[in-house]
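Board notes (copied after class):
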Amino acid sequence: IYSAEMDPLLEKQEEMVQAAIFYPLECYLFGEDPDTFLEKLQQSGISQLCGKVFKGGETTYSCRDCAVDPTCVLCMDCFQNSIHRNHRYKMHSSTGGGFCDCGDTEAWKAGPVCTKHEPGNSECQLNEEVMEHSRRVFPSVVKYIVDMLIWEEEKELPPELTIREKVDSYYCVLFNDEHHSYDHVIYSLQRALGCELGEAQLHTTAIDKEGRRAVKAGHYASCQEAKEEIKRHSENVSQRPLHVEVLHADVMAHQKFALRLGSWLNKLMSYSILFFKILKYWFFTGARKVLHELIFSSFFMEMDYKKHFAVEFVKYYKTLQKEYISDDHDRVLSVTALSVQIFTVPTLARHLIEEQNVITIITETLLEVLPEYLDKNDKFNFQGYSQDKLNRVYAVIYDLRYVLISKPTVWTNRLRERFLEGFVSFLRILTCMQGMEEIKRQIGQHIEVDPDWEAAIAIQMQLKNILLMFQEWCACDEELLLRAYKECHKAVMRCSTNGRSREKTVFHLCGHTLESRPYRVSSDPVSIHLPLSRTLAGLHVQLSKTGTISRLHEFVSPEEFQVELLVEYPLRCLVLVAQVAAEMWRRNGLSLISQVFYYQDVKCREEMYDKDIIMLQIGASLMDPNHFLLLLLQRYELADAFKKIKLTKDQDLIKQCNVLIEEMLQIIIYVVGERYVPGVSNVTKEDVIMREIIHLLCIEPMAHSAITKSLPENENNETGLENVIDKVATFKKPGVSGHGVYELRDECLKEFNMFFYHYTKTQHSKAEHTQKKRRKQENRDEALPPPPPPDFCPAFSNVVRILNCDVMMHILRTILQRAVELETHLWTEAMIQMVWLVLVFPPWLLTGFFSSLNAFAFFVKGMGSSALNAVNVLMLLEKLKRVPQLEAQKDTVIWILQVHNGEISMTGKNKEKAERKRKAEAARLHRQKIMAQMSALQRNFIETHKLLYENTLEAQGKEDAIMEEESISSAIDYSRIALGPKRGPSIAEKEVLTCILCQEEQEVKLESAAMVLSACVQKSTALTQNRSRILELSGDPLFMHPDLPCGTHTGSCGHVMHAACWQKYFEAMQLNFRQRLHVEQIFDLENGEYLCPLCKSLCNTVIPIVPLQAQKINRAKYSSSIKEMLILFATTIYRVGLKVAPNEADYRIPMMTWSTCAFTIQSIAGKPELLNGRRMRILVLSELFSNTEMFQQSLFSISYAVSEEGQFKALCSYLSLPTNLFLLFQETCFCVMMTLWELYPRKRNSLIELPEDYSCLLNQASQFRCPRSSDDEQKHPVLCLFCGAMLCSQNTCCQELVNGEELGACTSHALQCGAGVCMFLKIRECKVVLIEGKTRGCLYPAPYLDEYGETDPGLKRGNPLHLCRERYRKLHLLWQQHCIIEEIARSQETNQIFFGFNWQLL
């Protein structure tokens, strides 16, 4: 049956296999007619589990309110019939391989079953005979499928299948891989087989879709020769050859039948759960797509068998993952992709942790697949890494995330021990990452080649949520948290003491001494990767949050803790960031700058930058405050800067020193002031998110998506934004363009902290400028006081001691002293700002600890030698008010002094606010009183002079009436009649225009050199009344059919140039194009295209400006320049309209010119309103010209002060028509016109009607099947917005050969539907595509918006989308005004990235 592999007759094959094999087999299984039996079986009840397997590109839905985790999804049918349709949901395109979770009670918090799968009648019980037959058939079928799909012999079949004499019939079979591009395979096949392009494309498409393809049939020797040729032509220096095998025809036939048999078995599984109960305990690893679906429809439909399968899966997990990583097939076809269906089931995951130790197995697998990336110190080093391999390794990391995604509510001893064992195993991975890829500052010569840094950062991103989940799991159980902390602490100590020098350096300052290891970030190796230290910081916060920290000494003694060592490495990392900001690492290239960027970026900062700040807070709470600050000074290499040592005069070194001081002060501010972490202070996650949002909106109003991108996501890909956004911001809806934005509520402005630790330097400057500008507009001072933060938790309460220690006072006094002494090169304004903020901390941050003390008392109390420093600091602060360089900060200085003098207290701020409110209310009442007085005076004046007031109104009314009558009489004048035998002479007015190129003015005259308008001539179907008409068969283009199938439109942007200036400009563009042949242009100079010099509109001709003449046109004498431009314009119309080469002598040129004038006027005029009465339609003349700009300008002179009745009379006079409609009927010519309108009424075209809900379009796309393809693979459906046709885009199945060129479905459709210009909606990507011709196109925002007023290209955010009528109207106008080409040109000029796209094959 399947012997004809090269040119199979698919329908005949299917008929034969049904008749010869499947029908007899089903009759044996069921004991009756298969159709009858299966129909009864289907009607007897529907399985509660859906189990639909998703194909690539298919739309899936996840309920944000009810899903247990983001991997729980529904197919479209189940979603439309579930309660989740009215919830907050997301929609995405599936990558393929998963299945619908409808009916899985563990996947949903509510509504686990849709109406289609609700439990109904009891499942039909199969009789014993059917069960017995199934037990005999199914094992043999599965064994046959598996054996054939993993069969490795190329020439022989298994002995039990060899039933006839072997013939010399073979196939050369080419297999798919992920290393060779589509074009490379086509090229190799053409060269090796000598086949045509179309045949090579057909082979390549089939290989990509099915995984393999027979490309040659014949004897063994010829197939072997073809194999060697293909390998030779596909191999090069950077790529291995294609995978080619020579298979016997019998082997190919059996393997193809095995695939078909798998599909048949899969169909039976969908009818009854009892069928797949017979299949239990079968396991295999070699099957691809068919067996993948078979597993979904059998084992995964019953929890007991899913559990058995999961146990076996974990047993072979390491082997399976290693084979997948060394393989080159997509994950969707790998059995390892089933992990998401196993590990995300909470009860199953708990079972696998307890019984199979799955966490340990996954972590050990991760270490075993990356041995080549370990250096001699057992640290990862990803230099020269393989991106393809790492992408496959990420699958193992995902599995660890799946297992941890649901925290347990009940802990057993076995679960606790297994989890801890897995956590210790995970720490071994972090140990290999701790301090990996160390870098050293480059001095002298710039680094030659940037090292690879992307892999290490990418793995850090992948592990971010896993690290957080481990910490949260540990926090669920007190005993587990303490034991995990102990293990993590031991791991950090091991990494920190390796190779540690015993030498000590001694640092003295302010009577305090620090002994530490000699180390300088600027000269010694340093690493930005410290996951162990950061995990320990996270666990420490969990100890504080749960109150378990009181028992920490039972597990880690104070002697073992060594807090200085814990702080050391995170501090080095922060110093590295500071030195990069000071431009000390410029010679290390872009790789370091990129690492520092991601270190502080939202994608990584939770488990990098934030944890380093927390570790410093741990150090500040446990260390002596003076020693802590001495350590900071030493690591920032600022010891000499704060000693009485004469500093260098080198300006570069001074600048570096100043930046380092700024960065150190900033870190001190963060250590003391950044408390919005649950466990560091008593705040909730909602408080943290609200603070983040407030500081983002203090920069500027932002869109919902922009805020979401700036917030970290949790393990469920949620930011928590929706829960709090309405508390802090108000939503402003978008207009026709742009997007909706959130604006910060006024009451939240007081929460602004200028030194918010997640601000970049740019954001800090912008936020400061915005807030100062706002306060200035409110007539307030420009001081930006920080808000009082929450109190520290007891575990961190000692952090504040660093504010009143000797070293801190010395640092502050030194900086202020330099500012007062005007040593301008030794301080900066930013430095002084930070000092002021530190000075604000004592009174503002210690509320609750020292509430009875005023600010100054706090400085003096218990400070010993620091008391004098405190007095000095305040004295210096007084002097700062008189420093001219700090004039802009004067308000802040005054405010700080008021705080420290006790004039403003914590309640004082509220008093100040109340005072401002009182003053504002008094001012409002004062204004209201003045306005009332003015109104009373006006009324009194009118009453007093009532007679004079009435006379004035009466006189004004008479004067207006006289003027109106005069204007009407003057309007109805023969000199103002435009049509008919009484037409008056035209009034020539002087017209002076300015050239946009040379800026010189010129009067438009017949004898002068021509002035021209840039213009674009294009074919158009915007007025067509019959879209089914084929353009090529629509008749002679000179005589347009009443259906108006296609016309030639001329449009202009209206910019004027001298003809000579335009010619010079065009020639310069041609010259520039010749000199830059390697640069792709967005316009075709060969066909006269260019960009308007001013607005950059795409143009292809010019229109000469001719002055208005009283005499007839053919009697006028034009200058040679005007004649030349007229010929150029007419020739362009002829060339574009008829698609022929230019020919000035062709007799059709005049007719084509008049044709484009007629078509363009009709396009401008729009739709005449028609009234139905006695089956006659009457033209309402005012509507005919309502959209005609030229007519409105002409009419203006006769209707500038006329009433509506007067305007109508003037209009009729201008057109030489009677003012009475009944008189109009008596005109013979009008009767003829009405007859024509009766025969050829023209409606206004519009874009197709789109559904309100975008899900309806997705549903329509899911049901779309390509008419030229027999497979069930998901296509790329696009919708033509002109006619509503659904097309199969970017697939070879629908490519057409037009004039010898291969065109994609969209491009070929555009030639018929829009004369080459068309507008499509890519449904699965929610993007509009504009195309023009075969080489140009662009993407345009879809008219569908989410509730936040934003589009969602690619459905990446997945929010529900609804049609925006205003934006769809904008698309309609883009089409009707013939601006699509202009939009494409402007888009391509801005986004040069689209040059690489082959629009011809769209």
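Comment from the instructor: The CA atoms of residues 1065 and 1131 lie 20 Å apart. Residues 906-944 form the longest helix (39 residues).
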